[in-house]
């Protein structure tokens, strides 16, 4: 990606959180934001999350690290498990921004094959840069792989994204 490009990241927060939870090292969200800017020229990083009030301090920290948080209302199932699927929100947001020409290239952070139609749309419009998969290669959706868009794996960036203790 070119240094002068205005690129945007669309981050599936739940997918990122679950994916990095499988790593054998602690992920640093602050370093990730800096890395997105330096490596992919990401000027704006949308992080889509379910809104759960008890995590307000985390949300503040993420904003201070440079993320633009986009919240989804959370509902709870019969077992008390939070449900706040952001997939449709990400698709609508990215497509709207693409139509309004608000960015040069998108970086999509997910391993979820549900985003395949979005990836194909952005590819047709020459608006997709990369997919960053929070999961290792074998757990990244085959549907995303079949799009032909370059996929990088967060697990390969341990030396850059590992939290220093």
Automatic annotation (TrEMBL):
Name of the molecule in the record: NYN domain-containing protein
A Pfam family that the UniProt record links to this protein: NYN
Alphabetical list of PANTHER family matching this protein: SLR0755 PROTEIN (PTHR35458:SF2)
Organism: Candidatus Campbellbacteria bacterium CG22_combo_CG10-13_8_21_14_all_43_18
Domain of life according to the entry: Bacteria
Molecular function, one GO term: RNA nuclease activity
Coiled-coil ranges from the UniProt annotation: none
Domain NYN: 10-132
């Amino acid at each position: 990606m070119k240094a002068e490009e205005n690129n945007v990241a669309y981050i599936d927060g739940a997918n990122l959180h679950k994916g990095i939870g499988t790593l054998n090292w602690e992920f640093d969200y602050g370093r990730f934001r800096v890395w997105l800017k330096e490596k992919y020229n990401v000027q704006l990083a949308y992080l889509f999350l379910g809104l759960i009030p008890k995590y307000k301090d985390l949300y503040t920290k993420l904003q201070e690290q440079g993320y633009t948080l986009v919240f989804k209302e959370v509902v709870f199932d019969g077992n008390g498990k939070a449900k706040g699927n952001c997939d449709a929100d990400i698709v609508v947001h990215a497509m709207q921004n693409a139509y309004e020409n608000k960015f040069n290239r998108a970086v999509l952070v997910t391993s979820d094959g549900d985003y395949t139609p979005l990836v194909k749309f952005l590819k047709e419009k020459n608006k997709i840069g990369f997919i960053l998969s929070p999961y290792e290669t074998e757990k990244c959706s085959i549907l995303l792989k079949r799009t032909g868009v370059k996929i990088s794996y967060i697990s390969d960036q341990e030396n850059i994204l590992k939290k220093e203790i």
